[in-house]
Amino acid sequence: MALIVQKYGGTSLADPQRIANCAKRAVAAREQGHQVVVVVSAMGKTTDNLLSLASEITDRPRQRELDILLATGEQASTALMAMAIHNHGIDAVSFAGHQLGIVTDPVHCKAKIRSIDADRIRFELDAGRIVVAAGFQGVSIDGQITTLGRGGSDTTAVALAAALSGSLAKATCEIYTDVDGVFTADPRRVNQARKLERISYEEMLELASLGAGVMHSRAVMFGRNYNVPIHVRHSASPETGTMIIEETPDMENVSVVGCALTPDLGRVSLRKIPNQPGVEATIFKHIAAADVLVDDIMQIEYGDCVDISFTVEFQDLAEIKPAAQRALDELGRGEMAVEVGLAKVAAVGVGMRTHTGVAATMFKALAEAGINIANITTSEIKITCIVSKEHGEQALRVVHDAFGLGESGEHGGKSAEMAKTPGHASISG
Amino acid sequence: MALIVQKYGGTSLADPQRIANCAKRAVAAREQGHQVVVVVSAMGKTTDNLLSLASEITDRPRQRELDILLATGEQASTALMAMAIHNHGIDAVSFAGHQLGIVTDPVHCKAKIRSIDADRIRFELDAGRIVVAAGFQGVSIDGQITTLGRGGSDTTAVALAAALSGSLAKATCEIYTDVDGVFTADPRRVNQARKLERISYEEMLELASLGAGVMHSRAVMFGRNYNVPIHVRHSASPETGTMIIEETPDMENVSVVGCALTPDLGRVSLRKIPNQPGVEATIFKHIAAADVLVDDIMQIEYGDCVDISFTVEFQDLAEIKPAAQRALDELGRGEMAVEVGLAKVAAVGVGMRTHTGVAATMFKALAEAGINIANITTSEIKITCIVSKEHGEQALRVVHDAFGLGESGEHGGKSAEMAKTPGHASISG
């Protein structure tokens, strides 16, 4: 008997029929003798519809009230899911976040989970019931309804699995979604993309932040911190999906497990900034206030000046320009230039740490395809190249191909060594 | 400074614009210096839509889950109402039932309020905030979400007003709805119907149970028990509506304040029942199990047999027939006959207690219109006549007319004495 936390996303719960299908999976796991917790998102477009109602009333809703509004979506799903489970003659009880004692900090709309009352859930599980928990929501210590922000239901599921894991037995977390698992690249962009059987938390974090879109990085981080195995799989298919797990020694046999494309970036360059301590802090204070995620940051100094550039998603450019201008105003010096039409392709793998030649393989593949590299950044397990937007999709495909990711392999793709890459450029530094 | 509890029904909150209009009224009361609690129902058809989702999943949802599902409707309204109040620069906080400490018994779908944590609300009011409370819902002592059943939001509002009334100052309860107030008869049936300035709890209870449809009788009973003045008024009109208050001596100057029609009734007659102790208990045990409200009950005995008849709403006939048959099966004797095509017209007024001739006025009016009376029942403040369904509307109009309800008067209509009715039939017995 294992303890399984199953999480179903909004698309998987878009109508009563789909809720019934998900209920069937939960019941099947229960009938195999497992203890089952089901975490649900709001049905289909419910959250969007609620936000749209709020926006008809005010442009600037208070976050406390937004949380009370949005939390209704998941709560309704729990009740419907419990009813659908009852149809199979299996006992189930639904709980809103505050009933489960999912206690968060008091930061509305992006609360962080502080603690979970696992005893309450264990009591119901031990009584033979399936527990249906509202994802995405919690309650602060002073009784306010909070929501966890983007990726919140995934985080609820992973957190529940962590809270319910004993010293002897780990709970498994199954994330049911509308894709088959984690792929070597987005299958809509790369025909040869292949589903991975497993991937490490670290690799998944790099791919999630690059827009692989399967799971929110926050939930993956939670899984890593509490070592919860996460099974990402399709809600309408019996196939196994991808296990996100701790890195194992054999994962290092493979240099690159996946590639990702960020298809439309802009780059903001602030030039002729005074080269003195604190200018970066001044600039990014204003950028942070605009609440936009900045991608790579580059800095070059010359004489008493520096140039600082950073890339952002194209749709964030309009918001970041005034923020950057406020930074220049405060510095009293400097010019702004904005480029558009960029894209970013990245290769990720924990095996890079021990394999040489990975960067060279990537650069060679792009060069042979005649794609110019505008910028390169690296981390311990990732290599990123900025290219022109028009070459983005092609760059993704040639890199995917260069690492042999579309071919079959134990863990996914050939290692750099297996590919017998001639160069041995180090990716560090 | 007064304390006002304003309750807005689903029709008044059907879309963001109407929510904004209701918010404006709450803000106006606040700006007049009053402390304001707003109780909201679910928006428009929300509750029906949620029920319909549940019915797509199961024919027999558990009531615990139904409560969790339905409670989301009012919770969403609270958040939107608070946002709409914020638009006016007035502070407001929304609360679900469990947050307000509206503690109920554990009977799902028709819970009764046991206690309310008034201190929590007073704290917010004293801080200058408008409190927006979810109607219709509470929480049981063991933390289960409950709903109050039909008329639940009205009950929440009256209960909050009762809980917040001090020994010196009473809170007023304003029920905002889509009618102008309580009328001498349903204005859709009687053109001459006139809005009442005030009506006693007792009269309102009789009219509510007869389908006046303005307020649920449960909330009126709550108001009577805790002596909370209830102001029923239109949410889109500045006019005052009708005050439901304790009976005052001058109310006795008027014999009849209003008339009501139940337009479509059936009558079930159980004949040749053994005339022995306990047969009534046996019969109504089965009827109660069918969860159908029975109207008037008549019993006639002859020899060793009795005939027992009762009227029910036409749409309940299908459910009550098998229940009645089960009663006959248990008794082992008797026959069932079912009549349809009946209607019931009633006249209500606390002044009946001290006025003679009220029944005679009613019977004479029906006789002069050529309407046959199939049955008569009376209570201390009500006279009811069963007539044929085809004569129902006409019966209502002639009775309304006979008591001069359409004319102007201090409290509503002429007294029987003023009408100089020749007969003096007593209504008792």
Describe this structure in words.
- 2 copies of one chain form a homodimer.
- Chain A is of the alpha/beta class and 429 residues long.
- The first copy, chain A, has 2 domains: 3-178, Acetylglutamate kinase-like (Carbamate kinase, 3-Layer(aba) Sandwich), CATH 3.40.1160.10; 249-429, VC0802-like, CATH 3.30.2130.
- The first copy, chain A, contains 11 helices and 18 strands.
- In chain A, the strands form 3 sheets. Chain A has an 8-stranded mixed sheet, sandwiched between helices.
- In chain A, strand 7 (137-140) and strand 8 (145-147) form a beta hairpin.
- In chain A, helix 1 (16-31) packs across helix 3 and helix 2 (46-57) runs antiparallel to helix 3.
- The longest helix of chain A has 24 residues, at 63-86.
- Chain A is globular, with a radius of gyration of 23 Å.
- Chain A starts with a strand and ends in a 27-residue tail after the last helix.
- The model of chain A is unreliable at 409-429 (pLDDT under 50).
- The A-B interface holds A 15-17, 19-20, 50, 53-54, 56-58, 61-62, 64-66, 68-69, 71-73, 75-76, 78-80, 82-84, 86-87, 93-94, 96, 98-99, 143, 145 and B 15-17, 19-20, 50, 53-54, 56-58, 61-62, 64-66, 68-69, 71-73, 75-76, 78-80, 82-84, 86-87, 93-94, 96, 98-99, 143, 145.
List the helices and strands and how they pair.
The structure is a homodimer of 429-residue chains.
Chain A: E1 3-8, H1 16-31, E2 35-40, H2 46-57, H3 63-86, E3 92-95, E4 102-104, E5 113-116, H4 118-126, E6 130-134, E7 137-140, E8 145-147, H5 152-164, E9 172-177, E10 198-200, H6 201-209, H7 217-226, E11 230-234, E12 242-245, E13 258-274, H8 279-289, E14 297-302, E15 305-313, H9 317-331, E16 335-348, H10 358-368, E17 375-379, E18 382-388, H11 392-402
Parallel strand pairs in A: 1-2, 1-9, 2-6, 3-6, 4-7, 9-11, 10-12
Antiparallel strand pairs in A: 4-5, 7-8, 11-12, 13-15, 13-16, 14-15, 16-18, 17-18
